[in-house]
Amino acid sequence: MKYESQQIAYSYFAGATVLFCLQVVFGLLTAAKYVWDFDPLITPTLILPSTEPMLCSI
Questions:
Q1: Which of 6, 23, 24, 31 suits a disulfide with 1, CB 3.0-4.6 Å?
Q2: 23-37 tens-digit pLDDT
């Protein structure tokens, strides 16, 4: 880089970009929880499906 201050600005910009991306991801997770009324981070069915048999009442 031509100037030393450009390296500082690049580090700041990279950090700000990472924080912005995290803010967008967690914002989408919060919106999903609000709209669909489940928590995608703690819902165990998203990690391991239930092994209990499904009962259907016909």
A1: 6
A2: 999 998 888 888 887
